[in-house]
Amino acid sequence: MSSLFPGLTAAPSAGRTALRFGDRALTYAELAAAAGALADRIADASRVAVWATPTLETAVAVVAALEAGVAAVPLNPKSGEKELGHILADSAPSLVLAAPADELPAPLLGLARVDVDAQAGGALPDPPASGEDPALIVYTSGTTGPPKGAVIPRRAVAHTLDALADAWQWTADDVLVHGLPLFHVHGLVLGILGPLRRGGSVRHLGRFDTEGVARELTDGATMLFGVPTMYHRIAQALPETPQLAKALGRARLLVSGSAALPVHDHERITAATGQRIVERYGMTETLMNTSVRADGEPRAGTVGVPLPGVELRLVEEDGVPVASYDGETVGEIQVRGPNLFSEYLGRPDATAAAFTEDGWFRTGDMAVRDPDGYVRIVGRKATDLIKSGGYKIGAGEIENALLEHPGVREAAVTGEPDADLGERIVAWIVAEDPQSPPSARELADHVARRLAPHKRPRVVHHLTALPRNDMGKVMKRALSHD
Ligand code: MCA
Ligand code: AMP
Question: What are the residue ranges of CATH 3.40.50.12780 in the chain?
Fold first, then answer.
């Protein structure tokens, strides 16, 4: 397979800016040189971990790994020790790539470290041979147990980015701005690899804020990617920030994804800026499945139509596909196509369970289809998956972490609606000692330390017992409706 980034070696793009993080930037020629030098240093590794801070070094590290044909495992730099320990044991990388100034936590100290030099000079190797070779291993939460590593092959990355280019008329002239984390598909694959595959450029904000968005869109950026929480914060800021409204009004394309953007936020942004936000729908395992097209009719509350090459069907509980496009009949979204992952690393059982017998991937998302094919997501099959701030979080993983706290006898975790985060994580706790239960702060810190801060409960309720059915199973619906 050819390089995922033709712009790295094409003469016309050599002097163009590829990446900008704050006041640090690399042209395509400089990126090719830095990635070439690093690719040479890691060429013998079978798999590398990347300490995925929102920096130039992370982008160089991932590009180098892809150019070397070495699978990269992006790590959340805020991962707690338990989560990090699991990912390292599960993915067994032979090296960790990090920016020279980064201090790595204990679980990584046993691993050989290669510092990423964004100014280094070297030649790119020959492109790796096969599209089926793993490009990335991205960890994603399930309903129970620790996160699973989704193995994403090179052809899925190439396919999804080219399908989005078609849907969004995305070209080398586009300048993307975003402030997403770089250890998930949204921020890394779409937000960094996307512009680089097009030969365009990306400006990363380091961390999301509305001032940065306004500044970059005023200063020539053409596209914005964000999760609904970011657009919600934009919608909140618009009434007092005319320059933000003006900046958004100039953008070519504003894209939201990772969770549903409430229609109210769509409407507030359109009213203040004249822009319609484009929603697209994807998943770590499938990369992108559908999108509202730049040349299509925008419709708030829908995720648009299947992307080129993606087959999508809705399937009812009994396994029968929904034939009608009536805007009413709900079915599970199942997808097939070159955008799909190859497997969960080391988990043939979980991989097999994720597919139907005839090879469709079960997304677990429930939807209806409008008469013209627009997909409208209406919910999720599993109540034990929570989407908070655009992060997918398994209730079971947090329950297990809470149970490791000495003051906790029983724990159940649910998600409840939150205007900012979409859903917030709620913990229901039976304390070992009801007279002195652990505080909400203590439990949030405990989870943040062991897993990651975005997995911490935002609300804690103390109960004398969890509601259970005759089989002893916790009845979460009874909890949520308390
Ligand atoms: C707070 N903090 C703590 C604690 N409490 N740290 C340790 N212990 C604690 N007890 C820190 C947090 O780490 C954070 O630090 C800061 O305080 C604020 O926390 P929080 O309120 O959680 O963060 P936020 O500022 O509200 O974050 C909102 C956000 C974020 C920026 C929208 O949720 C986000 O970046 N979401 C993006 C998720 C995403 O990319 N999902 C894509 C996956 P600090 O401020 O330093 O961070 S889905 C995907 O890839 C699929 C394919 C798809 O379709 O896209
Ligand atoms: P993740 O596993 O973190 O990649 O998250 C994938 C999940 O995010 C999907 O299964 C959907 O539930 C959700 N998702 C992504 N994009 C959208 C969207 N535009 N609207 C609603 N849900 C979305």
Answer: 6-186
**For residues 190 and 170, is the Cβ–Cβ distance under 8 A?**
no
CA of 33 to the centre of ligand 2 (A): 36
Q: Which of 196, 197, 175, 178 is nearest to 186 (CA)?
A: 178
Q: Where are the alpha helices (DSSP H) in 71-143?
A: 81-91, 106-109
CA distances from 43 to 40, 186, 343, 429 (A): 5, 27, 24, 49
Those residues whose C-beta lies under 8 Å from the C-beta of residue 264, and which sit 6 or more positions away, are none
The three-class DSSP label of residue 164 is helix
Residues 372-389: what's their mean pLDDT?
96
Asked if 59 contacts 194 with a C-beta cutoff of 8 angstroms, the reply is: no
pTM of the model: 0.97
Extended strands (E) in 292-360: 305-306, 311-315, 331-336, 343-344
Q: How wide is the angle at C-alpha 158 spanned by C-alphas 87 and 86, nearest 5°? A: 5
What is the rounded CA–CA span in Å between residue 384 and residue 382? 5
Is 399 within 8 Å of 413 (Cβ atoms)?
yes
> What are the angstrom distances between the C-alpha of 325 and each of 148, 307, 330?
34, 17, 10
Give pLDDT tens digits for 290-334.
Answer: 999 999 999 999 999 999 999 999 999 999 999 999 999 999 999
> Which residue matches tokens 């396994």?
319
For the segment(s) 6-186, the CATH number from 3.40.50.720, 3.40.50.12780, 3.65.10.10, 3.20.20.140 is 3.40.50.12780
* CATH class of this structure's domain 385-478: alpha beta
- Count Cβ atoms below 10 Å from residue 59 Cβ, excluding itself: 30
Is the CB of residue 176 less than 8 Å from the CB of residue 189? no
Q: Ligand 2 in contact with 392 (CB < 6 A)?
A: yes
- Determine the average pLDDT of the residues in 107-119: 96
Residue whose CB lies within 8 A of the most ligand 2 atoms, among 392, 393, 421, 455, for a mutation test: 392
- The segment(s) of the chain belonging to CATH 3.30.300.30 are 385-478
Contacts (Cβ under 8 Å, ≥6 apart) of 475:
467, 468, 469
Pick the closest to residue 227 from 244, 208, 212 (CA basis): 208
- CA of residue 319 to ligand 2 center, whole Å: 22
